[in-house]
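User: Predict the complex with FE2/S2 (inorganic) cluster.
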Amino acid sequence: MARCPSEPVLRHCCPVRTMIVCHCNIVTRTEIEDTIDALLASDPYLRLTPGMVYRDLGRRGRCCGCFPAIVAIIVAAMEARRPSSTSSADLLRCSGGVPVE
Ligand code: FES
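Assistant: Here is the predicted structure with FE2/S2 (inorganic) cluster placed in the model:
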């Protein structure tokens, strides 16, 4: 996933950050990231879904074609908050808490 090289100075004017992720609701990546930050600030153990993010934004999924992108943004936000010793590859190898070989 592309990371904004100008973060945090130009957070709201960087093309990556202002990219429209949901064309049905005209929602930008910045709006989604800010919502994720706010939701995780209220409960760091929250299991976020695109529906939760949209509910907080006061919007609803229409075609839901953007949901995979929303999930990717959620995963990136969670990885940014996770201690560096655990990678997403480690998590993907696990299934229900039992490591898969
Ligand atoms: S693109 Fe987001 S609901 Fe359609």
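DSSP finds four helices and four strands in the chain.
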